[in-house]
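Lab notebook, page 48
Experiment: co-folding of the full assembly
Goal: obtain a model of how the components sit together before planning crosslinking
Operator: M.T.
Materials (sequences as entered):
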Amino acid sequence: MALDRRTDVKPAPKPAPRGGASVHEVRWRDRLDAALDHHRASARDAALRMARQWLTSLMTVLVVAVALSLPATLYVVLDNVRALAGQVEGQAQVSLFLKMDVDERAQRALATRIGQRDDVVKVDVVTREQALAEFRAQSGFGEVLESIEGNPLPGVLVVQPASVAVAEQVREALAKEPQVDIAQLDSGWLQKLAAMLAIGERLAQALGAAFALAVLLVVVNTIRLAIESRREEILVVKLVGATDAFVRRPFLYTGLWFGLAGGLAAAVLVALLVAWVGGPVQALVTLYGSAFVLAGLGIGGSLALVALGALLGLAGAWLAVGRHLRDVEPA
Amino acid sequence: MIVFDRVGKKYDNGHEALKGVSFTLPPGEMTFLTGHSGAGKSTVLKLILLMERASSGTVSVNSMNLNRAGRRDIPALRRSIGMVHQNHHLLFDRSVFDNVALPLVISGFRAPDIDRRVRAALDKVGLLGKEKLSPLNLSGGEQQRVGIARAVVNRPPVLLADEPTGNLDPALAAEIMDLFEEFARVGTSVLIATHDLALIARYRHRLLTLRAGELVQDIGSDAAAWVDGEGDADGP
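Observation: model returned without errors.
Model output:
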């Protein structure tokens, strides 16, 4: 009935050629446009209110930013460690020290056989002579060797397994070779690192969840206060017939802006941190002769962080509004 | 169109605000509702706006049975009712224009339409030219008129008013009553809760009198009872 009256009082435009459908379409579009108008107005109003109480808003944004940047930083650290581990992973190798009575030909035959295994990428042969020469050249104990009769060094096969995961398996298999005296895995520490990384990852996930919850609670509380301070206004708007969606809208935008601003600030904080630590890290890795470069969140990661913030802000606002808006009823 | 059918309202604290009240307000009729404070006037208005629900009997507004209306039906109901509140219920952090525009914004009107209608409504209550002011800068009477403009801007089929002329001088009160009559003429059901006997006497519309929650008098606009009916309106 209300609808009928409203169309009644509108100054009739050109009468539609065939009534019903087209009129409905216009009204539908009108309503959509009006809803968009209100979205725009709510978004702007929410931002203006935040700006008017800029100090309080800044505090909230910073709390959100810090809570988001902590797990994000942990993520960056893990990511870098993983990248670093990946760089060394190629060097995971099993050293086979052969028995002293294995001559060069047997050594090469064994190398060829091992090289055919599926879980082995490459086999380098270091003959006893090469080992001796290398030792002389590099160790600085060359003179000591002069006093020893013959060549005390065994032949060595340096085996590179297909991956760190199978390295131990390869070592065990090759240790059973009769010509092998000692089979030594040089990358045991890499496996420990991988295990530690897994722990770190779990930790980061748990911390991330905890801090996400913290962000959610901060936003819920902020929106709850906003609802409380605008109680009168909500009552009036409900009295003149506002739908729940209409009443909810400005608060949802408030939450969205807090989350978005918090996410942006967090991305900036992490970028600043990476820049701040980047110099010393560079100095350190240069000492190790590595080409490793400290990575930040990158564009994708930063965008994901901002999106996460926005999502948490919106979700927090939604929770607060669902919980508290029903309590404000005109009576 | 408002129909009360043997409506009772008992509040949680045991107070029985309405007992078996029945009346029908057809479209285009203007009706006064009077009685002592506490006689149930506000309860009648609250039931129509679904701020409260009847404990017994049936209330229906614009052929919508309010007993069966859910939470989701409330906004549409309230949009079809213009309400002038005694304490105005204005938003003091917004301009007069924005206050009056509120029902239109909620109903989904667009800016040019809103502009035209708000100006028309403000013109009718004599506040054109004050639309940019805050209600805080207006007198009590002017605030009341802002409330009236907001109630009529949407041209609702039902218009309720709680002491609408309380803060207005007689000349202005007369203008506002003329405005209400104009709405009744084009088919709006108008219900005015008031203590103002002089007003009731002057306009001689239908009169409902409540006493301790019961409808004790229902005098039609053309009833002979009017000859001595005025004195009973508010009792001793």
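Interpretation: Residues 244-287 of chain A form the longest helix (44 residues).
Next step: discuss with group before ordering constructs.
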